[in-house]
Amino acid sequence: MRTVIFDLDGTLADTSGDLIASANACFTGLGLGEPLDPVADQLTAFQGGRAMLRLGFSRVRPEADESDVDAQFPLLLKHYEAAIDVHTVLYPGAVEAVEGLLSNGFKVGICTNKPEGLAETLMSRLGVRDLFGSLIGADTLPVRKPDPAPFVASVEQAGGRVDRSLLVGDTVTDRDTAKAAGVPSVLVTFGPEGQGISRLEPEALLHDYGQMCDVAERLLGR
Questions:
Q1: Residues designated catalytic
Q2: Which of 42, 100, 212, 221 is most enclosed, with most CB atoms within 10 A?
Q3: Number of domains the chain is built from
């Protein structure tokens, strides 16, 4: 069965605003203000909570070390869980693209480096969890992307076959995951890197979700 697996942050949804707000809440709690910008620091937001904390500390407390990051990380997750869908929106056409894939016989799922519980909460809050046959998060297995195991699990949980699957993402992590799994990667140009993502030379670029079905048919056949 042909299967399309999606990354979540920066691919299906723009989550950067809520991610950055959660990191800024940590710095505010330390009396350090809000050092992260929701627009300029989007790319860092999609690299994870610890990356945001490191960047913020580099601006307001340069002497901070990894122990400071580790101390704030659980608080960041608490802030994020409490306000996970304040600013987050699905990218235009994402729902229609997934529905189009399903109506054309594809299986669809999610493979993300967001903790599984948070990913489940977010997709449910956005009202689209039922569209996806699988959801594998950063802590579902002992390993995470770019290890291929979470991708393989997401394909199998969705009811598909790895040899007839592809991964849609927005970062080098997704590109490396697809390579490790031996499947095509499709990278979106409307994510945080924009057109610059073409430097990774994926099997296809996705400029608009209206192209999703055509790209999947081209890469996986009919």
A1: 7
A2: 212
A3: 2
